[in-house]
Amino acid sequence: MKTMFVLGIGLLSVVLVPAITSRTEAATPPAYVRAACTGDAKRLCAAVIRNTPKRQACMRKHHEELSADCKAAIAKWRGKGGKEGGGAPAKKD
Predict the structure, then answer these.
(1) What is the tens place of the pLDDT at every residue in 38-89?
(2) Cβ-based neighbour number of residue 76 at 10 Å
(3) Whether the predicted pLDDT of 92 surpasses 50
(4) Which end of the chain has a smaller Cβ tally under 10 Å, C or N?
């Protein structure tokens, strides 16, 4: 019985660890997004800059205040080809 429990836990870890890791890696913005948005993050979210989940929530909260370059980089990363909201051009500041 104890052996079955240990095997079950081992199997779960083999299945869950890669799934969790791939989600985390997929949520990490590429270098071009980080480069375009670093100034905005420092300006708008300085208080939570080192806390990734809070920083990401802060950036979402302040989406309308992001620079045009940051918005374009995020749109490109999200597969919108540099456009926001169903194909509408990115808002220029």
Answers:
(1) 999 999 999 999 999 999 999 999 999 999 999 999 999 998 754 444 344 4
(2) 16
(3) no
(4) N
> Tokens 């104890």 — which residue?
2
Question: Model pTM?
Answer: 0.57
At position 80, the amino acid (one-letter code) is K
What are the residue boundaries of the structural domains of the chain, listed by start?
A: 2-82
Handedness of CA 20, 77, 75, 61 (dihedral sign): positive
Which residue carries 């950036």 as its tokens? 59
